[in-house]
Amino acid sequence: MPNTQPPPKHEHETLHFPPGFLWGAATSAHQVEGQNTNSDWWEWEKTHLPENKRSGKVVDQYHRFEQDFELVTKIGHNAHRLSIEWSRIEPEEGKFDEAAIEHYIQVLSSLKKKGLTVMLTLHHFTNPLWLAKNGGWENFKTPFYFERFVKTVVPRLESYVDLWVTINEPSVLVWCGYIEAKWPPQKKNKISAIKAMWNLSRAHKKAYRIIHQFVPNAAVGIAHNVSSFEAFHHHSILEDFMEWFMDISTNHLFYYLTGKNTHDFLGLNYYFNQYINFSGEGHFPEIVDIETTKKDVSDLGWEIHPEGIFDVIMDFSDYHKPVYITENGLASTNDDRRVRFLLSYLKEIYHAIQSGVQVKGYFHWSLMDNYEWSDGFSPRFGLIEVDYKTLQRTPRPSAYVYQEIIENNGIPHYLLKLLGHSVDVKDVLKKDQKA
Ligand code: FCB
Q1: What is the domain count for the chain?
Q2: How many whole angstroms from 402 Cα to the centroid of ligand 1?
Q3: CA dist., res. 342 & res. 134, Å (int)
Q4: Could you list the residue ranges that cross the membrane (predicted)?
Q5: Which strand (E) or helix (H) includes residue 344?
Q6: Cα of 172 to ligand 1 centre, how many Å?
Q7: Alpha-carbon distance 372 to 182, whole Å?
């Protein structure tokens, strides 16, 4: 339903978010825990990456979670998204490690004791090594293995979890593992990709059913990588057709495969805007290499395009489901850019909410610097900076800007000054801490 309120006055008012909005950050087990030795990624890193690009101890959150969660509350978050590591819980096929489950109970209860709303991801890219050796997601038995894992953990963890994400970015897993083949199992094969996608969708449906068996009123979804698409030439029917095709075959495919009724909410991870161009050569329009456009990009070369998050939220508005932004963030060593990124993307989310979409939470990627898969440690995504030599954690100025947004449950007008360049965060924040 469109909002009937008049459009907000931008001059002086806080851009208010809905009451009870969840404000947090996201991480995944392999990217922060360290020593994840029973997983396919650990094995793959040993043979495919130079030593300085292997995950190793990362930021050692496996042992430092208490300290990290204290920081989470200190910088004002009211929610947190994290994942558990299947390969720790089931290091051998069918053998569940009680100590690992107990560890995650400690982790989750620490978050709950601090009053945080918990979003838990059950599968975030990594697999137990035994599963990978058995054919991984290509194996038609894998959804049953996943089901057994979910059946084991859900009754143990459910009292600490508010929102469940069954699988993180199934389409990225398939793309990077089987099409572009830059991640394990590095198998460039379209048939394998189709099998993997099919099995991931079955695994999600099974997990959805199991979680609801144990927790009838559970909120369950996936964290889905969604892109915005834009034709260069809107008068070109071919480009417009391609835009439509890309949208349904990437953003909507998993929902078609699983059925919309196995999603209580839509978890959207937004990082990419893609331009479509038909140069006249060949038969079809193509996705434009962003470098040729000279647009503003992150340290990973991903375009900074705040309007795109509005576009994807609106694209999904006809599902009529609550939306959580389960990931959105910037790889940059320049924290001023992160401040501008945060404000400009949140402003677009605000406009989507004003346009009638039920967006209920935002999880910034990421809480702290971490292991960025095959890109190693150089991309800096954290609201909290990590010194990888000492493992010391230091909140960046952007963390304090975010804190001030959270305290206001919206974007106070004075913070919008920070959208300008060369504006010092310290001069704008109301609280005298900080940055
Ligand atoms: C997403 C992943 C997450 C992180 C960010 C930068 O695709 O879900 O683990 O690597 O990208």
Answers
A1: 1
A2: 20
A3: 42
A4: none
A5: helix 335-354
A6: 9
A7: 13
CB 143 within 8 A of CB 203: yes
Give the residue whose CA is nearest to atom 9 of ligand 1.
Answer: 28
Residue 239, domain member (yes or no)? no
Ligand 1 site, residue 225, Cβ cutoff 6 A: yes
For residue 6, tell me if it sits in a domain. Answer: no
pLDDT at 143 over 90: yes
Q: Where are the alpha helices (DSSP H) in 52-189?
A: 61-74, 86-89, 98-113, 129-133, 142-157, 170-174
- Inside any domain, residue 231: no
CATH number for the domain harbouring residue 367: 3.20.20.80
Among the ranges given (4-8, 171-175, 195-199), the one the predictor scored with the smallest mean pLDDT: 4-8
| Range of weakest confidence among 65-69, 201-205, 211-215, 417-421 | 417-421
- Lowest mean pLDDT across 282-296, 299-313, 378-392: 282-296
Long-range contacts formed by 187-196: CB under 8 A, 24+ apart: 187/138, 192/138, 195/137, 195/138, 195/140, 196/136, 196/137, 196/138
Mean pLDDT of the chain: 96
Residue with CA nearest ligand 1 atom 10: 372
**Which H or E element spans position 343?**
helix 335-354
Name the band, by pLDDT with cuts 50, 70 and 90, for residue 396: very high
DSSP-assigned beta bridge partners for residue 24: 79, 363
Instruction: Give the model's pLDDT for residue 431.
Output: 76
Q: State the residue range of the domain holding 396.
A: 15-226+255-277+296-429
**One-letter amino acid of 2:** P
| Angle (deg, nearest 10), helices 98-113 and 142-157 | 50
H helix and E strand count, the chain: 15, 13
Identify whether the C-beta of residue 156 lies closer than 8 Å to the C-beta of residue 215.
no
How large is the C-alpha radius of gyration of the chain?
Answer: 21
Cα of 308 vs centre of ligand 1, distance in Å, is 17
User: Does residue 327 have an active-site annotation?
Assistant: yes
| pLDDT tens string 183-215 | 999 999 999 999 999 999 999 999 999 999 999
Positive or negative, the CA dihedral 290, 381, 170, 116 is negative
Q: Which of 327, 348, 372, 404 is catalytic?
A: 327
> Is 373 part of any domain?
yes
Tell me the best of 31, 39, 119, 372 to mutate to test the pocket of ligand 1, counting ligand atoms within 8 Å of each CB and taking the most: 372
